[in-house]
Amino acid sequence: MTRVMRTHGLHNVITGTLVMHAFGVSYPNDWESTLPAKVARRDQWLARFDAR
Description:
40% helix, mainly alpha, 0% strand, 52 residues
């Protein structure tokens, strides 16, 4: 992927910031019955790491 990015003038950025990815909460998927639990887990993580 880095080679592909370079061909388009892009590059990677390494940072000390933690990025949390909450799978399956931004789009519908085949497991919509588990979506409320995933949304709740995402919101808990966001509240825990909120730096405001």
